[in-house]
Amino acid sequence: MLDLFIGCDEGMDVRVVESRIDQLRAFVETADYAGYDPYDALNSPVLRVLCSPSRWMRLACTQCLKRSPLNLRKVLAVKKGHNPKGIGLFLWGYARLYAVERRPEYCERIEYLLDLLETLKSKGYSGACWGYNFGWQNWRTWTPAYTPTIVNSAFIGHALLDTYVLGGVGRALDMAVEIKEFICRDLKRHEEEDRLCFSYTPLEELYVHNANLLGASLLIRLYRLCGDPRLEALALASLRYALHYQREDGAWHYGQMKRMDYVDSFHTGFNLQALQFFMAEGYGAYCQQQYDLGLAYYVDHFFLPDGAAKYYDDRVFPIDIHSLCQAVVVLCHARADRRAVCARVLGWMLENMWDPKGYFYFRKGRYCVNKICYMRWSQAWALHALTACLLAQWPDLPKDAGPCAEREEHRESQGRSATGRQREGGRALQRRAIVPPVGAG
Predict the structure, then answer these.
(1) pLDDT value at position 261?
(2) Which domains occur in the chain, in start order?
(3) pLDDT confidence of residue 401
């Protein structure tokens, strides 16, 4: 398919990446994309009963099970499940694979994952939205299972848009467009002058930078498709909020609220990825300088010389698969010196986090490696990263949408609704926008 990977000077052959993608696909397909999650402790009926009186007990149980190198979930009767965010990331991966190689089996997987996302939608909101398949406790509040979040809905929205762009699947576009009503109508807002920050969920006033920016980046893409000026205004106000609170050295705290004054790797990566979407849509004048500053901090503070990706900016361990994967996603489109970092990160990830059984480990600590297989946190993110890297090797994508579009036309001819003018008007723009412009990093 391809001869060399971007890091050829680092000795990485793209065939290694392709081989890992094939093995990982076989693993997750056999599992039907269902599995455990680091934060699913309270899916245990045993722990729910024991922890029900106290938020601190719920938080402690969640953290203990997450940090344990032994997987106790079978003992605690935690069942494997479909995580909506994980399904969205898998969808994103198959859309990229289809863009690289027009194989009918990828179309079948895309349709199956779209069906899953339809069934996993959170009910009772103004637009399409998704949460987690488990309830979770933070230091402030309890969030029930399937409570929609802006992060999940934004990631799934980007996956849906790229499924339309790369595969011509109009059904995916219809689902993505519906998300704008959830963001615009259901989420709370923290407003400051001409800036705003969207809440993490509709239930509480929890405001964090990566969530706000991810939602804004989806709105700006939807604006370029739909032309709704409300979306541009909200997206730019959210962008101004994030840039206003960026530190002078380029870093972002997790948020501006109590106990959020830390800087971690993958949430910083989410911020940078969101800014890449803004720049790809023509808004570089608003954020290019701040993006460059943020990317410099990211590269200078989160990566060891051998490619290991730190979780926090002030300590080495843990080295988490999430941090590695998000680094690959962000850096695979950057300029040459940044791509060399991407190659080292990917090489370290394939060397140290891969299990011969066909999946990726959770994290590496100072003294041991946690080898538990987590479907969303590890496998979905790994497929997302590996396919993003693979797609980045193709400067020009095929113009023909191929079998996926033909299947969609047949579906619509049987009565499915369409938004034809939006699709025809937005397609060329979105295809160009899929890869950030040269010089974006």
Answers:
(1) 86
(2) 30-39+84-303+371-433 (1.50.10), 41-77 (no CATH)
(3) 52
